[in-house]
């Protein structure tokens, strides 16, 4: 009750002087329910994650893992419509058939970035792809299961070309989990903060 204003106290006093007890009890119940609901609402809003914030670390690989459960694998073809801001299109392919198309916009940053990824239709993808004159980046893409419901996304980029390399990414629910994550045996280096390994810069360096 200490949170109520003096104005409320005045109104309540007048009510208590004129209302029967059952009305006062009913009023109190409604006030308590409303206050509790608002408290829960504030709590939920405070702890609700921003769905567009990506917390991710990147590592160089020397090979695909052999000791982790494989969740799925497919081919990825991606290209950049813009570097700044970063605007990317991406096509997933499995067994020679297209399975998904995406348009993504990303902010600048290192471990923490804003990303908006939108599924798009086949027609929209190929209309955008016609605007790209350079060859798409190719990826042999595999996703592995990690403890604590984490996923390890591994990419073999431009396989068979002189630009090829391998890297892995892990996305985390919060900064604490990201900072506590320990490197796996086949990780060669943590390149999260190395801008040269951002795919938009790889695109600019190899396709620009």
Low-confidence parts: 29-41, 43-48
Outline, from the CA principal axes?
Answer: globular
Question: What's the arrangement of strands in the largest beta sheet?
Answer: 1-5-4-3-2-6-7-8
- For this structure, the quaternary state is single chain
Radius of gyration: 26 Å
Number of helices in the DSSP assignment:
5
- The chain-level structural class is alpha+beta
Estimate the mean pLDDT confidence: 86
Commentary on this structure:
The chain is an alpha+beta fold and 208 residues long. It is 30% helix and 37% strand. It has helices at residues 6-18, 21-47, 122-129, 175-180, 199-207; strands spanning 53-61, 70-82, 86-94, 97-106, 112-119, 137-145, 151-157, 165-171, 187-190. It has an eight-stranded antiparallel barrel. A hairpin with a 2-residue loop joins strand 3 and strand 4 (97-106). The longest helix has 27 residues, at 21-47. The protein starts with 5 loop residues before the first helix and ends with a helix.
Features:
8-stranded antiparallel beta barrel; 208 residues; 5 helices; alpha+beta
Topology:
Layout: H1 6-18, H2 21-47, E1 53-61, E2 70-82, E3 86-94, E4 97-106, E5 112-119, H3 122-129, E6 137-145, E7 151-157, E8 165-171, H4 175-180, E9 187-190, H5 199-207
Antiparallel strand pairs: 1-5, 1-8, 1-9, 2-3, 2-6, 3-4, 4-5, 6-7, 7-8
